[in-house]
Design brief:
- By secondary structure, the protein is of the alpha/beta class.
- The protein folds into three domains: about 70 residues, Winged helix-like DNA-binding domain superfamily/Winged helix DNA-binding domain (Arc Repressor Mutant, subunit A, Orthogonal Bundle); about 110 residues, 3-Layer(aba) Sandwich (D-Maltodextrin-Binding Protein, domain 2), CATH 3.40.190.10; about 100 residues, D-Maltodextrin-Binding Protein, domain 2.
- It is built from 13 helices and 13 strands.
- The strands form three sheets. It has a six-stranded mixed beta sheet with strand order 4-3-5-12-6-13, with helices on both faces. It has a five-stranded mixed beta sheet with strand order 9-8-10-7-11. The chain has a two-stranded antiparallel ribbon with strand order 1-2.
- α10 links the parallel β8 and β9.
- It is rod-shaped, with a radius of gyration of 32 Å.
Length: about 300
């Protein structure tokens, strides 16, 4: 039994005319007639009383119509129902605190508004914990700074983000253009964001070590907000990703871009290697791209 035959039959039942049914189905009348004949041959019964005008259903035809109409309605709803189901589901996104606060907020809000039926969870933690969540499949994906330690993950770089110097207004380091690492190493330094140790140095410390420079880290803090407070009190200067800056930070600090001295930071999505993102996860990435902060450089076509 062919769906085209059922559609033609139900249309004839609805309009009481093979001609009108053909017009509604955008078919030629002989095609509809053939569909009805095939359906009668397959069922072994007469479905239409062709002696009456408008065409009327036989008792067997009425019974088949009652069975076929809801069936066709369900079939016609399959694309819509499937699309609606794909918009549901569950999505867990993991990220480091600075990324969650400064880059994910607009994307999370937009995603919830666009896909309210998806259960969206956001989990934060230090980078090693975030990597563990993804590896153990407690999170579908993570949004993190990208580095060379991610060899066992799928990586999609979404943004690049320069590192900047944060100093109090009027600090002596600002008396001349900053074009050498020695100028930064000469001042007390506050590092953060999981800022490292002597065995696992932060990015700026690694650069100092490569250049054989002496430097003085006076504080290691987990919070960029805490770093900003201490910098504002004159306790030191700091190097941080531009993305962690707030709109009013330029009022409180002098901010100097260091792309000419330090590596550009990459930020992106990581997933377990050889896995395919679910529909909710793919939609989240697309929304994330659209809500990129204006000072970040996108890395997609």
């Amino acid at each position: 039994m062919d769906l085209r035959e059922l559609r033609s039959f139900c249309a004839v039942a609805q309009y009481g005319s093979i001609t009108k049914a053909a017009e509604q189905l955008l078919l030629r009348q002989p095609a509809v007639t053939l569909h009805i004949q095939e359906l009668e041959r397959e069922t072994g019964v007469t479905l239409l009383d062709r002696t009456k005008r408008p065409v009327q259903l036989t008792p067997a035809g009425i019974h088949l119509s009652e069975l076929a109409k809801p069936l066709l309605k369900q079939i016609d709803s399959l694309p819509t129902e499937t699309a609606a189901y794909a918009q549901q589901g569950k999505l867990t996104v993991a990220s480091t605190p600075e990324m969650s606060r400064n880059m994910l907020v607009d994307g999370i809000v937009s995603y919830r508004e666009t896909y309210p039926d998806t259960r969206l969870y956001v989990r934060g933690g230090p980078l090693p914990e975030v990597l563990r969540m993804v590896r153990d499949r407690e999170a579908d994906l993570a949004f993190v700074p990208i580095n060379e330690r991610f060899g066992d993950f799928n990586v999609e770089t979404l943004f690049t983000n320069e590192r900047v110097l944060l100093a109090p207004h009027g600090h002596p380091i600002l008396d001349q253009p900053i074009d050498r690492l020695e100028q930064i190493a000469a001042w007390p330094l506050i590092v953060g964001g999981g800022g490292g140790t002597r065995d696992n140095p932060s990015h700026i410390e690694g650069k100092f070590n490569q250049s054989g420079l002496d430097y003085n880290v006076v504080m290691r803090l987990d919070s960029f907000d805490a770093i900003k407070q201490y910098v504002s009190k004159g306790m030191g200067i700091s190097i941080m990703p531009r993305v962690v800056l707030e709109p009013d930070d330029e009022e409180n600090f002098t901010i100097v871009g260091l792309a000419h001295l330090l590596d550009i930071q990459q930020v992106g999505i990581i997933t377990v290697r050889d896995t395919i993102l679910s529909d909710p996860a793919q939609r989240f990435v697309e929304i994330l791209k659209k809500t990129i902060p204006p000072h970040i450089s996108p890395q997609w076509p």
